[in-house]
Amino acid sequence: MAIKDWPANERPREKLLQQGTASLSDAELLAIFLRTGVQGLSAVDLARKLLADFGGLRPLLEADLATFSQQHGLGQAKFVQLQAVLEMSRRHLESTLNRGNAFTDATTTSNYLQRQLRHFDHEVFACLFLDTRHRLISFEPLFRGTIDGANVYPREVVKQALKHNAAAVIFAHNHPSGVAEPSQADIQITKRLQSALALVDIRVLDHIIVGDALTCSLAQTGVI
To answer: What letter would DSSP give residue 142?
Structure first.
């Protein structure tokens, strides 16, 4: 049965308008993006098949062009549209952390850092540089490493913080394993950086570890 023949409250578009985006399943959201199905499959049926083939929404969203285009019903045009949607989403989230806003929302911070760091298959160490009112000056990836770790140099961190005239910083790095549990090395480097930055009167507010679905704040765990 075609989607247009479904009851109005079951059609993805109408359901979104009546009940909001949170009421839709992954397949229904993807169906709205796809707009049409293929022969023998409605847009929702095609979306369900794609999610099953890719193993979920995230692998589909992070697929490269070659992998994405292998699927029936997808192609270069859809890939370009999807990348544009994802980039708009990233920019929208980043705009909530612009310099005009005080940096006080831990949830937004964690969501932003997940967007920036979760997809890497190697460790990336980054820093949020903040002004005296804890407003964002800049977000910068500083170091990258293998799946086992990244080499972090306090001298370079201090240099970048002074360059931005930062009054405070928040560190972040991802765990490619997907587990947002701090290692002893994470705790040690955090304390080294904290000591180095204290010499130039720059506060370390937090170090957030980004996992696959969760984040861990070293400030909340009492390390900082």
So the answer is: E
- Could you give the angle at which helices 26-34 and 43-54 cross, rounded to 10 degrees? 120
Task: Let me know how long the chain is.
Answer: 224
Chain CA centroid to CA 211, Å:
10
What is the tens place of the pLDDT at every residue in 27-74?
A: 999 999 998 888 888 899 999 999 999 999 888 988 999 999 999 889
Residue that is written with structure tokens 């720059």 in the block: 202
Q: What are the E-state strand segments in the chain?
A: 124-130, 136-144, 168-174, 203-210, 215-217
Pairwise CA distance, residues 44 & 55, whole Å? 16
* Beta-strand pair 215-217/203-210: antiparallel
Q: Report the predicted TM-score, pTM, of the whole model to 2 decimal places.
A: 0.67
CB contact burial 69-105 (16+ within 10 A = b; e otherwise): eebebbeeebbeebeeeeeeeeeebeeebeeeeebee
Instruction: List pLDDT tens digits, range 122-169.
Output: 899 999 999 998 888 888 999 988 756 678 899 999 999 999 999 999
Which amino acid does the sequence have at 48? R
Specify whether the CB–CB gap between 50 and 30 falls below 8 A.
Answer: yes
CA-only gyration radius of the chain, Å: 21
